[in-house]
Amino acid sequence: TVYAYPHIGNWFTFVRYDLLVRTLRASGYEPRWVMNITDVGHLVSDGDEGEDKLEKGARREGKSAWDVAKFYTDYFVQGLERMNIAAPTYLPKATEHIQEQIDLIKRLEERGFTYTISDGVYYDTAKFPRYADFARLDVDEQQAGKRVEFNPEKRNVSDFALWKFSPKDQIRDMEWNSPWGKGFPGWHLECSAMSMKYLGETMDVHAGGIDHVPVHHTNEIAQTEAVTGKPMAQCWMHTNHITVNGEKISKSLGNGITLEDIEKQGFSLMALRLHVLESHYRSQSKFSWESLAAASNRLKDYRAMADLRFQPATSESNELTELDYDQYQQDILAALQDDLDTPTALSILSRVSGERTSSISAHEQPAFERFLQFIDDALGLQLLASSDATSEQKQLIAQRQTARDNKEWQTSDNLRNELGKQGIGIRDTEYGSIWYRL
RNA sequence: GGCGCCUUGGCGGAGUGGUUACGCAGAGGUCUGCAAAACCUUUUACGCCGGUUCAAUUCCGGCAGGCGCCUCCA
To answer: Mean pLDDT per segment of 10 residues, for chain A of length 438 residues?
Structure first.
């Protein structure tokens, strides 16, 4: 929903979707990935009756709802790129599929699943007997109105709006004509309408946050399956949430850390990405600056390993034990294919980086580079994004070596400092001087 | 009130009925012109109480604590 800046909890989830796509690709599939943009507001009851998040956001920022949606949509798409999340095949917008949504309501209406009350057209969940099954809901025991005022016109507590009428005394930025009156679609509707358009009546995998199980996904299923009579998805993937200081992230708690905050603290977004992979998507995991720093250091090791491809390779005659990179690759892929077990995948990668700290052999270089390419494809850590040291820097390294050979320590240290200013560190190993990025 | 989840070493985080997860951090050492890095060694685990079992962190029950959902939310 594009009404505000996404926080890191959102990005955790998006990275996990990305891992699914990358794992499928590494396994020989070419998934069609649809990520829908909710650019028409949901109903809220933050005490502002008749307003929704987008309209509210617009008023807050002194713009129209359309401007707000566009602004945050653009920001979101850029964020996907910044986090190195594979580009979805389709990014359909709810506002561009109003007709499809109206058509879906018509089909539901024909089948007798709808009824109209003063503020909109509703879905009668009692007409869909399997309604509570998906989330194992105990609808009768759920306390209606405990947190939100219950609309007494609704037939059942769990009934939800398919089409909301615009308030009589108000002109909304976003509203459309429909057979039932001027208004706007309920927010569960777009997912059913757009998924059927782009993925057919049954999709292979439907992903989403764990929080959506009881309401949103339940409602999606009710809408879609009432019309198709087929399962909406073969498989559901629900990502758990992260907590910050033991609490969930929410705007009201003011702990919504953004990508900008991450960078402001001096961390790269790839460090954040690695941090996401360190926990399993089903687990509720914790975010802290300390653990992000740990991930950042870990990434530095991986990068130093990747940069070995620029260093002088050792001859084949030395004692460096050859590694079976293909085997490591297979093991990592197997871990990912096992319910996206990224923690295990990383433990294998760390084993390799622990073995390759100073040098690689000329003989294994091609396999090593294939391995790095696989890691970048599967995990998206951009290890191959770094470039070689410049020829000037390499010259300085050589000069320093000469100075050391002549025991001109002052000169040698000066050169090391100079390289350090350029972000290049030097380590003197048994294989010679190796540079790495500070 | 209803539904569900969690509790692992300094931090993060996997996993398993009997065998090192992994990462980060800490300590000591080797190496080094000095560093850095690397390498070696090292410290502390499975909330509490019962039960099942030859054996439980890993299964069962209870207790304590924490969290999530039942509003929009990743």
So the answer is: 88 94 96 92 45 69 83 95 96 95 96 92 91 77 53 84 85 89 91 95 92 89 94 91 83 78 94 94 89 92 91 66 88 93 93 85 89 96 91 90 89 90 84 81
Three-class HEC string of A155-196: CCCCCEEEEEECCCCCCCCCCECCCCCCEEECCCHHHHHHHH
Q: Which nucleotides of B are covered by protein (CB under 7 A)?
A: 1-6, 11-15, 21-25, 32-39, 66-74
Å between CA of A297 and C1' of B11: 14
What are the Cα distances from residue A350, in Å, to A294, A320, A341, A354?
13, 18, 15, 6
**Chain A residues 72-101 within 7 Å (CB) of strand B:** none
Which three-class secondary structure string do you get for A8-77? HHHHHHHHHHHHHHHHHHHCCCCCCCECCECCCCCECCCCCCCCEHHHHHHHHHCCCHHHHHHHHHHHHH
Hey, what are A244's tokens?
Answer: 């910050």
Distance A299 CA to B25 C1' (A): 15
The continuous run of DSSP H or E covering A380 comes out as none
Going from the C-alpha of A275 to that of each of A9, A295, A298, A304, the distances in angstroms are 12, 5, 9, 18
Residue A190 sits at the vertex; the CA angle it makes with A186 and A196, to the nearest 5 degrees, is: 145
